[in-house]
């Protein structure tokens, strides 16, 4: 239910409008006359015939800014951009890199405003808090050992400091909202009870765990925003990290969690997103989808039935038997060895005999207890789900990684799923209302800011 948006980048609309005016000029000069009856006035009383004095093309500016006296340097932008490139394995084109650079600068401006406002309210974030989150990002988003993470970032053209600054901004803004907004949010017991009743009435229907990248779009900038989002979608489909793009560019409150909306039902989503979600397959990414105020890219992380036990939550006890191939093994030799391995393991009669079989064929054996079925790779889930106690899976693997089988030694099936608690639903409703207020808060900070570009 926490899908409200909190970061609306009005700056992007201004850049797009100036760029459009520059492109429509017929000759390069310091005085350009533009006529376009199709541009929405948005209540600003802009004349149809206008003259733009001087050249004001953001594409020729260096990516630096002074925000209420705080400097954002070109190095800051380069290091933040390198984080995105690193999270996508370096698979970012030169054209995409330049487009991302402008978006990074907008993000850094917002981040600076948030940190400044937190400091003005005497909110401090300790180094220990930053380090804890830094370690989590290293392990979860970059799959790096924390001891080598600093060196890894330097090899990618970034630094630990730039990531820690982003973390500081997220923590400071969150704490500011909890202190200045959350205490004034009220949710009634009757609202919570009404949701619980609807959940019980919806038992057995499908809900979805969705990731979202949301970007706002004023009418005059909608086409350009849609183009930018299609480029992001292409990068993700080519192997880019959805989580990394969401953290850096999503304007929703869920950006800090990699765009994860949590478990939602179609009725909780804007209609266009609901229509897309019910047609998606787990693991699929689609977009851009037009929603009120902008566009979204959706990623279907998982789906389940409401208040119904999910078989994939079964807890398994497994034994793994594996063999490896020495360097230089040919495909034919590996196939022959794997066939012998398959014959031996399929004749195993229960986990009690697994150790003896492993010794006879020179296989390594590992016990794996407390493994959730849903945590196994997708192709293995359906295979293991159909095994009876004591049966072995078909062999799987490769010449490089070796071949292995899994033997099912035990299974604890899940009980019926419980509804969210009263307190959990209360917290979700409060978060939604905090996010709405946060959107207004950040908008006002932008309006009052003094921003100079170099």
Automatic annotation (TrEMBL):
Pfam family, one: Rotamase
Assigned keywords, A-Z: Chaperone, Isomerase, Periplasm, Rotamase, Signal
Single annotated GO MF: isomerase activity
Domain of life per record: Bacteria
Gene3D superfamilies (UniProt xref): 3.10.50.40, Porin chaperone SurA, peptide-binding domain (1.10.4030.10)
SUPFAM superfamilies with a match to the protein in the record: FKBP-like, Triger factor/SurA peptide-binding domain-like
Domain PpiC: 205-302
InterPro entries: OMP_Chaperone_SurA, PPIase_dom_sf, PPIase_PpiC, SurA_N, Trigger_fact/SurA_dom_sf
Signal peptide: 1-25
PROSITE patterns given in the database record: PPIC_PPIASE_2 (PS50198)
Entry protein name: Parvulin-like PPIase
